[in-house]
Design goal:
Rossmann fold; alpha/beta
């Protein structure tokens, strides 16, 4: 399949996908895109705004994964506001723009992933462990993820499977914490493929 991997980060969701797929990753930060390319040299990596790229290119792919930034939806931010550590911000609505676009105009398989938000989701989603998934196929329950990543960069690398020790000029802790666990990405794609036998 031709797969579009949006907001790719270092590629956590993609790590366990079959290498036979043609994967295009879109990442805004050039340094992070370089790290992704190191881990997945066979993928095409584009440095661009993933939200805009989706709008103009969605019809060119068989399957789309999107993980828009989650901080504005996270309960952690809301708790921080109540504790005086954060200021209130608008929830980033690009998440829902992408869901609406894919639901109404895209003919392939898609999955939009984000955190369970501090508010009632504006569009019904499938809740699995610590994630919400908006997808046009059923996603089965998945094994519980490791607890939230604490400790050293080396300990986080053991959990995610990404050793970032050689990279400079990036927030390694943030990259690891933003990383979708590889088993989650694998389970989601398997669920889609199991419901699309002609694509296997």
């Amino acid at each position: 399949m031709k797969i579009l991997n949006l907001y790719s980060g270092i590629g956590g969701n993609r790590k366990l996908w079959d290498k036979s797929h043609q994967i295009t990753a879109v990442e805004f930060d050039p340094k992070i895109a370089e790290i992704y390319q190191d881990f997945f040299p066979q993928d095409k990596v584009i440095v661009a705004d993933a939200h805009e790229y989706l709008l103009h290119n969605f019809a060119n792919y068989d399957f789309i994964w999107s993980s828009p930034p989650c901080p504005s939806h996270s309960d952690i931010r809301r708790c921080g506001v109540h504790k005086g550590q954060n200021k209130p911000i608008y929830a980033e609505m690009s998440l829902y723009q992408e869901i609406i676009l894919l639901q109404n105009f895209y003919k392939g398989g898609y999955c939009v992933e984000n955190v369970v938000p501090y508010y009632k989701p504006l569009i019904l989603a499938q809740k699995r462990d610590r994630h919400l998934f908006w997808a046009n196929f059923a996603i089965s329950e998945m094994p519980l993820e490791p607890p939230k990543m604490q400790g050293t960069n080396e300990q986080r690398a053991q959990i995610t499977g990404f050793d970032l020790s050689k990279y400079k000029g990036v927030d390694k802790r943030k990259l690891q914490r933003n990383c979708v666990m590889p088993m989650v990405g694998k389970r989601v794609l398997e669920c889609y493929l199991n419901q699309q036998p002609t694509l296997i």
